Amino acid sequence: MSSHSNYTLTLSEEARADLKGILSYTYQKWGEEQQIKYSELLDAALLTLEENPGKGRRHPKLSAEYRYYHAGRHYIVYLIEGQQIQVVRILHDQTDIPRHIH
User: Fold this and answer.
1) Rounded CA gap, 16 and 39, in Å?
2) What are φ and ψ of residue 85, in 5° steps?
């Protein structure tokens, strides 16, 4: 992702797989138009985090370095390390987040 931020945002392999699965499911369930809208929503959320990584919240059952941000029906779970934002997972908002974070 690129912006005018001092941060760089990257997605882990798991987060990339999550995103691919989310968009594939959205396409199969609701069609191309909704897939495009949801993709744009998630892209906007990632850009928001890149520009302001402090927007995410801490989860009481995760280590303090993890944050999560609600976007649509999903949580973007990420770490901030210096000027680097590492998205570790993108999970449905009904998911038990701590169970999927190692």
Assistant:
1) 13
2) -110, 120
Residue matched to tokens 């999927």? 100
Whether the CB-CB separation of 22 and 97 falls below 8 Å is answered with no
**Domain 8-96 falls in which CATH fold?**
YaeB-like fold (3.30.2310)
CA nearest neighbour of 87 among 54, 41, 46, 43? 46
* Beta-ladder partners of 11: 87
pLDDT tens, 44-84? 999 999 999 999 999 999 999 999 999 999 999 999 999 99
Question: How do the domains of the chain map onto residue ranges?
Answer: 8-96
